[in-house]
Amino acid sequence: MQYNVTTPAEYMSALEDDWRRAKVVEIREIIQSKAPDLVEGIQYKMLSYGDGADSTVFHLNAQKNYVSFYVGDTAKIDPSGDLLEGINCGKGCLRFKKSLAISDTRLDEFIEKTIELWRAGVDVSC
Fold first, then answer.
1. CA 45 to the chain's CA centroid
2. How many CB atoms lie within 10 A of CB 72?
3. What is the pLDDT of residues 29-63, one digit of tens each?
4. Are the C-beta atoms of residues 114 and 77 closer than 8 Å to each other?
5. What is the distance between the alpha carbons of residues 126 and 92, in angstroms, rounded to a whole number?
6. What's the CA gap between 75 and 65, in Å, rounded?
7. What's the average model confidence in pLDDT over 67-91?
8. Considering the entire predicted model, what is its pTM?
9. In sequence order, what DSSP letters do the residues of 19-83 get, joined into one string?
10. 105-118 tens-digit pLDDT
11. Does the domain at residues 8-119 carry the CATH identifier 3.40.50.300?
12. Contact 12, 74 (CB under 8 A)
């Protein structure tokens, strides 16, 4: 889904108050705890996280049936797939459906590793 918004606050206000909103909030909190210095903005009509200039590491968006977390090439970040076990992975994105409890995953470790690689200058994009 696309939201015609210009700020993260507007994005959050535009979300319906349902399970997708709760998942977006939970993922936002993990990002903010692992990298409080990342700048949250809007790109491509969804939440974005980066250095505030020209480099973005994550995008986050509530779709109709799941929440998409765009992370780049997961194989560059987690070659063994251990950190993403149990998560529905697409090309460059992780999909979180209603039935998946984020607390039962290792998403926090995956985010931490992605940020570490990105800050070291490793190309984690698709």
1. 14
2. 20
3. 999 999 999 999 999 999 999 998 889 999 999 99
4. yes
5. 6
6. 25
7. 96
8. 0.95
9. HHHHHHHHHHHHHHHH-TTSEEEEETTEEEEE-SSS-EEEEEEE-SSSEEEE-S-HHHH-TT-GG
10. 999 999 999 999 99
11. no
12. no
User: What is the average pLDDT score of the chain?
Assistant: 95
The domains of the chain are located at 8-119
Phi, psi of 45 (to 5 degrees): 65, 30
Q: In this model, does residue 67 exceed pLDDT 90?
A: yes
b/e per residue, 17-46, with b = 16+ CB within 10 A?
eeebeebbeebbebbeebbeebebbbeeeb
Q: Up-side HSE of residue 23: CA atoms within 13 Å toward CB?
A: 26
Q: How far apart are CA 92 and CA 110, in angstroms?
A: 13
Confidence at residue 10, expressed as pLDDT on a 0 to 100 scale: 97
The mean pLDDT value for 11-16 works out to 96
Euclidean distance between CA atoms 97 and 120, whole angstroms: 31
